[in-house]
C-alpha cells in the first residue's frame, strides 16, 4: 500500500514539492552562509518525494541553535514552502482520490516551517527508538 500511495503522491504532488525544496536549497547554497539550510531543504525535499513509510521525529539534542535557525529558515524559505504545501493540499482535497494525499500535505506544513531539530526516519525505526512521530502520514504497515 505504501508503494501505491508513494507513486500516486509522486505524480500528483511529490515531484512539484521536491522541485520547490530544490529551489530553496539552491537559494541557500548561493547565499553561502545558509548552506546548512540548503542541506536541510534537500533532506526534506527527498522526504517530500516519498513520504509514506517515513516519519519526522524531534531530536532530543536540539537546542537553542535549532530554534534560532528555524527563525531564519522561516523568513528565508519556510513560509513559501508551507504555502506550497497548503495550495497543493487544498487542490488535492478537491478530488476524492486526492483527499488522503491532501491531508498528508497539511501534515507536512509544520516540517516545512520549522525543520531544524528534527530527523526523518522510517516509522519502524522511530517506534524501535521509542520516539513519538511528529509527522505521521498514517501508513504504518
From TrEMBL:
<keyword id="KW-0812">Transmembrane</keyword>
<dbReference type="Pfam" id="PF03733">
    <property type="entry name" value="YccF"/>
</dbReference>
<dbReference type="InterPro" id="IPR031308">
    <property type="entry name" value="UCP028777"/>
</dbReference>
<feature type="domain" description="Inner membrane component">
    <location>
        <begin position="4"/>
        <end position="54"/>
    </location>
</feature>
<dbReference type="InterPro" id="IPR005185">
    <property type="entry name" value="YccF"/>
</dbReference>
<feature type="transmembrane region" description="Helical">
    <location>
        <begin position="87"/>
        <end position="106"/>
    </location>
</feature>
<protein>
    <submittedName>
        <fullName>Integral membrane protein</fullName>
    </submittedName>
</protein>
<feature type="transmembrane region" description="Helical">
    <location>
        <begin position="62"/>
        <end position="81"/>
    </location>
</feature>
<feature type="transmembrane region" description="Helical">
    <location>
        <begin position="7"/>
        <end position="24"/>
    </location>
</feature>
<keyword id="KW-0472">Membrane</keyword>
<dbReference type="GO" id="GO:0005886">
    <property type="term" value="C:plasma membrane"/>
</dbReference>
<keyword id="KW-1133">Transmembrane helix</keyword>
<feature type="domain" description="Inner membrane component">
    <location>
        <begin position="68"/>
        <end position="118"/>
    </location>
</feature>
<feature type="transmembrane region" description="Helical">
    <location>
        <begin position="30"/>
        <end position="50"/>
    </location>
</feature>
<dbReference type="InterPro" id="IPR052937">
    <property type="entry name" value="Inner_membrane_protein"/>
</dbReference>
Amino acid at each position: 500500500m505504501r508503494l501505491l500511495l508513494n507513486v500516486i503522491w509522486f505524480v500528483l504532488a511529490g515531484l512539484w514539492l521536491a522541485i520547490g525544496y530544490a529551489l530553496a536549497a539552491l537559494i541557500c547554497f548561493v547565499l553561502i552562509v545558509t548552506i546548512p539550510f540548503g542541506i536541510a531543504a534537500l533532506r526534506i525535499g527527498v522526504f517530500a518525494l516519498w513520504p509514506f513509510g517515513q516519519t519526522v521525529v524531534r531530536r532530543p539534542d536540539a537546542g537553542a541553535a535549532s530554534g534560532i535557525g528555524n527563525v531564519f529558515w522561516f523568513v528565508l524559505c519556510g513560509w513559501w514552502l508551507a504555502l506550497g504545501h497548503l495550495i497543493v493540499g487544498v487542490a488535492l482535497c478537491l478530488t476524492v482520490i486526492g483527499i488522503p494525499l491532501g491531508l498528508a500535505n497539511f501534515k507536512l506544513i509544520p516540517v516545512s516551517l520549522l525543520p531544524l531539530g528534527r530527523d526523518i526516519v522510517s516509522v519502524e525505526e522511530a517506534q524501535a527508538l521509542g520516539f513519538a512521530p511528529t509527522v505521521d502520514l498514517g501508513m504504518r504497515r
